[in-house]
């Protein structure tokens, strides 16, 4: 293979099961509420935090337990609440904060979905960068509903979780790295979920392109250090 060419990005399948979710102080409260379902204080719950903090993964965990379905902004606009939410069912509204702010019709649809879930004993799980109470919506009735949703922050990882996260991300791509490489990365990267995902993706692609193992000298060459 020409080392100057990157291979085709065929993607990888991340592990999104309960056994793959890494529990730490920054997310344990959110996990505890997933475990309490269906004994939630209402029919809606929200997890919020920075990109890559595990919100969507935890939503997948809840989906497995509840048989809920992911509902995008497009789904919400194209369908009626009765089509999206069956009795005792659930919907996951994953990262629709920006779409909601821009679209008054989407706000109206979400308001009706919320009411229908409450009437039919269904459940809604929201994820976003901020708690729903801080979302910028123009529909007063929806703003009132969103402000009442119990919301739990999922923060940035501590050092131990960050190290475990790197191991998981490499494992998801069927890559193994040495303890020395792992420590090298932990000490030099910004401690964020986004940084972990980006470096693992880059190292995977560059390793395939150059047919080299992921070692400390290789990482230095990739990072230009």
UniProtKB/TrEMBL annotation:
GO cellular component: plasma membrane
Pfam families: Bac_DnaA, Hda_lid
Matches recorded under Gene3D superfamilies: 1.10.8.60, P-loop containing nucleotide triphosphate hydrolases (3.40.50.300)
Molecular function via GO: DNA replication origin binding
Protein name: DNA replication protein
SUPFAM superfamilies, A to Z: P-loop containing nucleoside triphosphate hydrolases (SSF52540)
GO biological process assignments: DNA replication initiation
Native organism: Kiloniella spongiae
Residue span(s) of domain Chromosomal replication initiator protein DnaA ATPAse: 19-137
Domain Hda lid positions: 172-223
